[in-house]
User: Fold this.
Amino acid sequence: MRIFDPHIHMTSRTTDDYERMAAAGVRALVEPAFWLGQPRTSVGSFTDYFDALVGWEPFRASQFGIRHHATIALNPKEANDPRCADVLEVLPRYLEKDRVVAVGEIGYDSMTAEEETAFAAQLQLAIAHELPALVHTPHRDKARGTERSIKVVAESGIEPGRVAIDHLNEVTVRTVKESGCWAGFSIYPDTKMSPPRMVEILKEFGTDRVLVNSAADWGRSDPLLTRETADLMLAQGFTEDDVDLVFWRNPVEFYGQSGKLELEDDQAERGPLFEGNSILRGGS
Ligand SMILES: [Zn+2]
Assistant:
């Protein structure tokens, strides 16, 4: 089984996680830029973070044969802080970098006017840099946040097939499917979306234009929930081809629209890539 996790915050994870992910079949991932818990107070702490997403993390991932890509943006939560507004000015130079495969995470947190301004401006950056966009939906008032997000996406003029609306659930999936955008789901250990609920959604809505991720970050989360969901799909009658579509070919198709995915041609055919490589074990 080969797995492409389309949304995972490896900055918050340990080297042991990379090793366990590789053993479970994760061969590629996308790490979206987001907030770090502790509020940032200057543009410099964003650029240091962005540099880590395009430099240090790909190196760390490569020790386990995992291809690391990033999405870059001013996240919705920090879009409300005037000290972070100038982050928008530095984004263009990051969006041109190798392995930056989308603008994101953008969207709403509390649905303020400041968030909407940053959201709309960054959709225009996605269009200008010919990149897809990854849209985070708010955890509070999700249905209204999702509907408003689809409206902002439609007004921007970006092609819906180049937009993924993420963190969906049973309530929001239908609107997103009807919009033509990709539907993203984040599987968590005990809240929001679980492997059994995800499999039920796949039975009802199908496997087309669906992205399933672990979203693992600094909160309670599990980078192996992609694999757990894939195993449950097989146990409930989906074929290996269905699993490969959801966990590999779909993310490759969505982020491939950037023209910047870096996957090996023969990656599918090989065994776990880390086996033949030297694995980074030390912290130095
Ligand atoms: Zn995220």
User: Anything to note?
Assistant: The chain has one domain: 3-261. The mean pLDDT is 93.
